[in-house]
């Protein structure tokens, strides 16, 4: 089973699949995956994409890049310990291979997030839902419409690394199947929304054939034909959950949205009362240093418990009846209570902070402008089939997209996908700039 789960095969488009046999002792196939992601353009652009607080002028606040790097750091530690655990069960496994797989999946987990974070994602979904009865969307099939109406950054991340970055429609970054499988938290398409009512999925219908091939190769197809999660994806997800739950608080403290006292109960639950009091009353530390130290202790404690839970529930994790996630399985009640308190504090004071709301409303206007103009121009290209027949405005709008603009030979669904690829690939600043240009206010 684990030979399949740790597959070194790579996809190059069409029917071409090759196992990576060009390894050096200092650079394994999985190490190369890490390099492919970290040197990629979409990963670099995460430095100017919102984590929680849009367009923050405070350089200490996390962006998507710093968040992804920190998640990858936790993921590497969890992966190494998981590798040691698996080595005892399956002697052929190299622990550092597992560490690289989880670390790389963590690096790429947010690579498909749009500008302005989840607010940007919501704008795109609402725009397509609001315009569902318009002529320019009516020609899409119901499945194609679902990909846009329920758009999920997780599916876009999978699309970027497996199809459009580096080798367009030729396997993307050509990552190993092991890394691609670990990246997937939600092994189903947008149509799954009809069953669960939750718009969480990991592949668009345009990637359905490859997704099926990938999960078949990994041995992750159930008897009923549905897919199950790669066991290592649980570690990638837990790394993300642990980091954002605590680092969002650290950012809010940096921005003076919450106080040291607001966080005390959370730290007491996760770090112990003794440790919290020791750090809170240490006069050598500034308040910022106190928060940093307690966040570090919290991450360590939660990561250690995560591995205990992974090992205790390993049989269920590799079965067809998999658990939802590892945090759900925590048996340390204090840790679970601390995580719950952190979520409540986030909802109460962070996510509804006035400046954040103002900037997210601005994000609505920016992304709606991009969609209004670029989708309309794309539809006109589809209807006429001739760029020379487009209005000057539509022609110039599409030219803004450069080499990524829709091709008149594509079907309408794929033409719209190229627009979404373009918008999601933007940084916050660039989206703002282009929207201003299209509105005529960017001089």
Could you explain the architecture of this structure?
This protein has 443 residues and is an all-alpha fold. It folds into 3 domains: 2-217, Hypothetical protein af1432 (Orthogonal Bundle), CATH 1.10.3210; 237-354, putative deoxyguanosinetriphosphate triphosphohydrolase like domain (putative deoxyguanosinetriphosphate triphosphohydrolase fold, Orthogonal Bundle), CATH 1.10.3410.10; 355-439, no CATH class. The chain is built from 22 helices and 2 strands. It has helices at 2-5, 29-38, 41-44, 64-89, 95-108, 117-130, 135-138, 142-149, 153-164, 177-183, 193-196, 208-217, 233-254, 260-271, 273-280, 287-312, 314-317, 333-350, 354-384, 392-399, 412-424, 428-439; strands at 9-11, 17-19. A two-stranded antiparallel ribbon has the order 1-2. The mean pLDDT is 92.
What is shown here, in short?
The chain is an all-alpha fold and 443 residues long.
- Gyration radius, to the nearest Å? 23 Å
Secondary-structure element sequence?
Answer: HEEHHHHHHHHHHHHHHHHHHHHH
Give the helix tally. Answer: 22
Portion in helices: 55-70%
Distance separating the two termini: 59 Å
- For the record, the CATH architecture of the largest domain stands as Orthogonal Bundle
> How many structural domains does the protein architecture include?
3
Shape: globular
Please state the oligomeric state of the protein chains shown.
single chain
Write the CATH homologous superfamily of the largest domain.
Hypothetical protein af1432
Give the strand content: under 5%
Give the strand line-up of the largest sheet. 1-2
* Mean residue pLDDT: 92
Could you say what the CATH topology of the largest domain is called?
Answer: Hypothetical protein af1432
Going by helix content, strand content and strand pairing, the class is: mainly alpha
The count of DSSP E runs of length 2 or more, i.e. the number of strands, is 2
